[in-house]
User: Fold this.
Amino acid sequence: MIVMNENYLQLQASYLFSDIAKRVTAFQDNNPDRDVIRLGIGDVTRALPAACIAALHAAVDEMAEDASFRGYGPELGYDFLRQAVAEHDFQARGIDIAADEVFISDGAKCDSGNFQELFAPDTRIAVPDPVYPVYVDTNVMAGRSTGWQDGRYQGLVYLESTQANNYIPAPPKDKVDAIYLCFPNNPTGSMVTKDQLRPWVDYAREHQALILYDAAYVEFIRDASLPQSIYELEGAKEVAVEFRSFSKTAGFTGTRCAYTIVPRQCQVYDSQGTAHPLHGLWDRRQSTKFNGVSYPVQRAAEAVYSPDGKRQVRELSDYYMANAALIRQTMSGLGYACVGGEHAPYVWIKANTDSWQFFDLLLNKAGVVCTPGAGFGKCGEGYARISAFNSRQNVETALERVGAALSSA
Ligand code: MLT
Assistant:
């Protein structure tokens, strides 16, 4: 008899964004004439930068000739991309990250979900609340929760991120072993300062803990004094891995390319307390279970760092950030308290009602999809997230419709 992994029975409902997609499909089936504008999942809508497209075409042409054809690539990424990442995203900012500390992958979702495989089953995990659901669900799948109670998974430590702390949680009083942090934050759009990040690095060093730092939205930071990487903080390389992605930066959600930084100094410990480099473990995991990102896609990602690519990527993020500003301004004007949208493509709105009621209201009355805050955790109840990833025209139309729907509600 094949026995299931019963940890899966603990999972509540389906994955948040699949759940929303099903509801939207049902709405469209019942209302085939209604035009639906999606400001829910953070999926980009604009074309890949021209520099990436040119590189993609050129790489596809290489695949058309025996002489330049490539088969299996290196599982951890081609050197040309690992070098480009290390040089442009880190060394150029004074951060000493080497190319062999860059692990190319097909998504920050996969990496942030898979990384916990390297930890012992009884690892004590801390997550923010509200939280990107992948961090939580993957740890539940791995058996790190004893059950669901009062809207939370028992066994996980939740770090409340609310209006009271400006959506920046402080380290817990209790000892935890692994901490997920995400800045610019998904879903609240909040951004941390170096001074606010410092206690986390100190905490991790004091407790021999590990920070899993998700910086997938770094391209949207609009204040150079804010930390672009956790490694801007001294001592972070011993206690943090960092996830980055080309998805939101350069429109690669469908193209798939991302990377994780695992510094060579970063340690994990066996049950006897002996230190082991995390780098070797992640290398072993990836080279066993992953076969790399395709050559043309890695060439397209490399083009992000060309002079044209840099300019085009900035234009892309400026475009979405103008949407974010419009969303925040309009929703504030309608009397809804908002945060985010200043260094992140998400606006976090106090819904003044139950999250899913707000979602239903916007869908049914305005034909607009948002993400109910409750889907991100207990502290998200009463909130909704609106994504800036859409065309300007769609965002303007959506906001007009939302304004009308909320005024008549
Ligand atoms: C989101 O909407 O939170 C993200 O698009 C999800 C993801 O990147 O996987």
Notes: The pocket of D-malate is lined by residues 41-43, 109, 132, 186 (CB under 6 Å). The radius of gyration is 21 Å. The longest helix spans residues 307-333. The chain is about 35% helix and 15% strand.
